[in-house]
Amino acid sequence: EIVLTQSPGTLSLSPGERATLSCRASQSVSSSYLAWYQQKPGQAPRLLIYGASSRATGIPDRFSGSGSGTDFTLTISRLEPEDFAVYYCQQYGSSPETFGPGTKVDIK
Amino acid sequence: EVQLVQSGAEVKKPGESLKISCKGSGYSFTSYWIGWVRQMPGKGLEWMGIIYPGDSDTRYSPSFQGQVTISADKSISTAYLQWSSLKASDTAMYYCARPALDGTLDYWGQGTLVTVSS
User: Fold this and answer.
1) What confidence category does residue B51 fall into, taking pLDDT thresholds of 50, 70 and 90?
2) CA B116 to CA B87: how far, in whole Å?
3) Do the beta carbons of residue B7 and residue B114 sit within 8 Å?
4) Is pLDDT above 90 for B101?
5) CB distance from A97 to chain B under 8 Å?
6) How confident is the model at residue A78 (pLDDT cuts 50, 70, 90)?
7) Which among A1, A44, A99 has the least Cβ separation from residue B108?
8) Mean pLDDT over all residues of chain B?
9) According to the model, what pLDDT value does residue B117 have?
10) B34 to chain A, closest Cα gap in Å
11) Is the per-residue pLDDT at B107 higher than 90?
């Protein structure tokens, strides 16, 4: 099973700042099958990024993903008030699919 | 419009059985897998397993193998997650989600909160 580690655990930033979230895999993620999800309190997760770098339908271009192999990054170029949430990475290239523990982005 | 609608919140006692549901609409139910994800209170997401309603091919995460049963009734476009004997540690929010053809979870149900308490 591929274990995903996310850092930092919590990121405290102000609106307008840039957020950089990391996801590291215990072994190489097949074909960059790495996704990022956003979850707000009381809501189901929402798909942001798939294939490590492709934005899902309707996702603003301030969200971008990069990386390959074992190291992946989600960048939010300028934080909007609605972006404060928990972000999870997920690998779906190897069974069982696994999630990282999440990074909480909160308001400084 | 693709929708996954889950059954309502449940409160059960340890040792009781439970079956929760997830009804799909707006797409060909038999052509896409349906997965289940657990989220314990204040914790992260855990992949439980997945089923292909077209032929009932089912795969479980090792952590959940033998602990739950995933099934589907394609005649009513509904997937199920069931327990034969609940434990307090099964208290969690459970989401169903539909993987797109590439495997990403592009549609999610609203979640079913299961509370197990004596």
Assistant:
1) very high
2) 6
3) no
4) no
5) yes
6) very high
7) A44
8) 96
9) 97
10) 13
11) yes
CA–CA gap between residue A10 and residue A27 (Å, rounded)? 24
Set of chain A residues whose Cβ sits within 8 Å of the Cβ of B62: 1, 96
What are the tokens at A40? 């707000």
Q: Is A27 helix (H, G, I), strand (E, B) or coil?
A: coil
Q: Give how far Cα B42 sits from Cα of A58, A86, B39, Å.
A: 28, 11, 8
pLDDT score of B28 more than 90: yes
Distance between CA atoms of residues B70 and B49, nearest Å: 7
Q: What strands, in cross-sheet order, belong to the sheet with B18-25?
A: B3-6, B18-25, B78-83, B69-73
Distance CA B98, CA B4 (A): 8
Instruction: Quote the CA–CA distance of B38 and B109 in Å, as a whole number.
Output: 12
Three-class DSSP category at B30:
helix
CB contact under 8 A, A102 and B45: yes
Residues of chain B with pLDDT > 90: what percent?
A: 95
- Reference B39, options B90, B104, B102; nearest CA is B90
- Alpha carbons A102 and A7: distance in angstroms, whole number: 8
With b for 16 or more beta-carbon neighbours within 10 A and e for fewer, the A90-100 pattern comes to bbbbeebbbbb
Residue indicated by tokens 């309603």: B53
CA angle A50, A27, B96 (to 5 degrees): 45
Please report where in the chains the tokens 């060909």 appear, as a residue.
B28
Would you call A44 and B62 a contact, using CB atoms and an 8 Å cutoff?
no
